[in-house]
Amino acid sequence: MYEHKNNVKEGFTNKYGVYMLVYYEETDDVSAAIHREKQLKNWKRKWKLDLIEGMNPDWDDLAAKWFD
C-alpha cells in the first residue's frame, strides 16, 4: 500500500491515479487470494461497485491513516 500511495513503481496505480483503498478482503491463503482476485476481475462493474458500497458506502480511504 505504501508503494501505491507514494508512486514508488510504475503500474496501474500510477497510470490511472488510483490512490485510495476502498475495499479489501483478508485471507491467510495465498492461493485463495489469487483465485478471488481473478474471480473479481471477471465480474461486471456493477457487481464490483455493489461489493464496495456494501462494505464502504461512503467510499472512505481505508488506508488513509496507515502511513501518517
How would you describe what is shown here?
- The structure is a single chain.
- By secondary structure, this protein is mostly helical.
- It has one domain (2-55).
- The chain has helices at 2-5, 12-16, 30-41, 45-55.
- It is globular, with a radius of gyration of 13 Å.
- It starts with a helix and ends in a 13-residue tail after the last helix.
- The mean pLDDT is 92.
Annotation keywords:
globular, 47% helix, mainly alpha, 68 residues, single chain
What's this, in brief?
By secondary structure, the chain is mainly α. It has helices spanning 2-5, 12-16, 30-41, 45-55.
Radius of gyration, in angstroms, nearest whole number: 13 Å
Helix vs. strand class: mainly alpha
What is the averaged pLDDT score?
A: 92
Query: What is the H/E string?
Result: HHHH
CA distance, first residue to last residue: 13 Å
Model regions low in confidence, pLDDT < 50 over at least 5 residues: none
| Major sheet summary line | none
**Number of helix segments?**
4
- The shape is globular
| Proportion of helical residues | 40-55%
Strand content: under 5%
Q: How many structural units, i.e. domains?
A: 1
Write down how many β-strands occur, each being a DSSP E stretch of 2 or more residues.
Answer: 0
